Amino acid sequence: MxxxxxxxxxxxxxxxxxxxxxxxxxxxxxxxxxxxxxxLLDSMDLERERGITIKSHAIQMNYTHNxxxxxxxxxxxxxxxxxxxxxxxxxxxxxxxxxxxxASQGIEAQTISNLYxxxxxxxxxxxxxNKIDLPHANPEVVADEIVDxxxxxxxxxxxxxxxxxxxxxxxxxxxxxxIPAPKGDPDGPLQALIFDSVYNSFRGVExxxxxxxxxxxxxxxxxxxxxxxxxxxDEIGAxxxxxxxxxxxxxxxxxxxISGIKEAKEVKVGDTITHKERPCETAIAxxxxxxxxxxxxxxxxxxxxxxxxxxxxxxxxLNDASLVWxxxxxxxxxxxxxxxxxxxLHLEIIQERLEREFNMTVITxxxxxxxxxxxxxxxxxxxxxPSDMPDPGKLDRIEEPFIKANIITKADYVxxxxxxxxxxxxxxxxxxxLTTDRVELVFEMPLSEVVFDFFDxxxxxxxxxxxxxxxxxGFRSSKLVKLDILLNADSVDAFSAxxxxxxxYDRGKKICEKLREVIDRQQFEIPxxxxxxTKVIARETIKALRKNVIAKCYGGDISRKRKLLEKQKKGKxxxxxxxxxxxxxxxxxxxxxxx
Length: 595
Ligand code: GDP
Ligand code: MG
What we know:
Layout: E1 4-11, H1 17-27, H2 45-50, E2 58-65, E3 68-75, H3 84-92, E4 96-102, H4 109-120, E5 124-130, H5 139-150, E6 158-159, H6 168-178, E7 191-198, E8 206-213, E9 216-217, E10 221-224, E11 230-232, E12 235-239, E13 243-246, E14 248-249, E15 254-258, E16 272-275, E17 294-300, H7 306-319, E18 324-330, E19 334-341, H8 344-358, E20 362-364, E21 368-369, E22 371-375, E23 380-383, E24 395-410, H9 414-423, E25 427-433, E26 438-446, H10 447-450, H11 454-461, E27 466-478, E28 480-487, E29 490-491, E30 497-500, H12 504-518, E31 526-532, E32 535-542, H13 547-553, H14 556-570, E33 575-578, E34 581-584, H15 585-588
Parallel strand pairs: 1-3, 1-4, 4-5, 5-6
Antiparallel strand pairs: 2-3, 7-8, 7-16, 8-15, 9-14, 10-11, 10-16, 12-13, 12-15, 17-19, 17-20, 17-21, 18-19, 22-23, 22-24, 24-26, 24-27, 25-26, 28-29, 28-30, 28-31, 31-32, 33-34
Helix pairs in contact: 7-8
The structure holds guanosine-5'-diphosphate and magnesium ion (MG).
The site of magnesium ion has 4 residues, from helix 1.
Protein name: Elongation factor 4
Keywords: Cell membrane, Elongation factor, GTP-binding, Hydrolase, Membrane, Nucleotide-binding, Protein biosynthesis
GO molecular function: translation elongation factor activity
């Protein structure tokens, strides 16, 4: 136990976490040159393409220092706010963290939010200034920022480069010398923290754990404390580049467990593993059932494919425990699913996986957060879709999720950034100058306002010099109304949105304008209206196509054949027929893509 070190790497996106992890694996010969692929830890195709780590992984290295052999467990953390609960569990499995800061960028929002998590868990922080090879690096200024942030000495900061390999030896020495060995009682009852799980269609769910007390042997009967389920430890082992089966994994170490679990949702990150006989007295603190934050409808483009979509969703859920869904019927779109996601990235991932892995073409309706409606009679109604919104006459109040947003930007852009946040119903809580040129802003704002394109806007107004991260702080009462959109005098439920009362007129007008742009002209005139209850607050009209054009394109049987041909030619387009109006995916997002 005294020669084990468990650590994670915390960094803002693109500051070089994956590259540096690769260097550590090379230096410790955990991977041979032949096996070395760039950014080994990012294994899913999607992750590689997007250059981000979606799921966390762990890998064990052996390292000899001053004649002593050490086991170093690197527990990787996902780098996106959608997965912040997993980050917190990975951090809870470690005694130390490498804090990587890009020498040309300095501290960014995600550096800080992850650092706070690490400090909360009493991790030893090793500051690393990465990318010192860059000609435009600013090592002195960035070092001062780091010293201010974590109140360390200048000498504590390790200059490094994931590109040249500079400093990698120093980082490994620091891991051994500065991070404490794990504590815990080797003879006590088993208490192991599940910090991750990975679905494997052949072997069942692989559970990754860190042992706090006791030990686990192959064949043991184990129990997951929070779910109450019992399993046999069919296979346990160490997480090297490949899994290496072992007879026993002991206190302080990290390992994997396989026991034929078939569904990802049976295993909850943050749960505690113990023995059936001689269980531990308490579960490890900090367990939470992760809840979806963003909800959207997913519908097949072709209504015939509903059952196929259901089968695909079921398969996706087998390996993604955080995806939740239930069947939903829309007057406009027919049969589909109301799905809950951890955030917008998660939603995009699911949509992409449906298309790539299952060859489905789907329409996604505008995402919405969850609202809590309190009725006059005291009843609480959960609103996951605008159509769930109760009759306003019976409503006492409605609450929406709020976040604490952390934004770091250049002094030049403070004005516009504050302006944007206020426009998004934010309240400024704090403003701190990190240096004369870089400012940290803290805002409280509704989650619904940042879910969609807030970050894009922030980047535009700050010319790229802004970073953003957030955490949820709870539900608060807001003046919200349901905004309905009528196409050809029919209310289209899939276009409804829940908006703040003061923004309703403006939003309604802009949504109508946007829909007029994105819906193609047809043989007839199409009125588009926005309404609150029965009151129409905005109207636009899509003019009819001129006659001669219609004559060429349409006409009974031919048009149907033509459509079929086009469909075969182009593959399926994300388009749906609403009444007699054809509407593209873009239109379903119109509610969100207006300012
Ligand atoms: P992550 O998002 O923190 O995992 O960052 P990556 O490891 O994916 O690195 C982001 C980008 O920075 C990639 O294009 C890397 O090639 C580059 N990079 C990483 N480390 C260094 C470094 O030390 N020097 C230079 N010049 N580039 C680096
Ligand atoms: Mg990465």
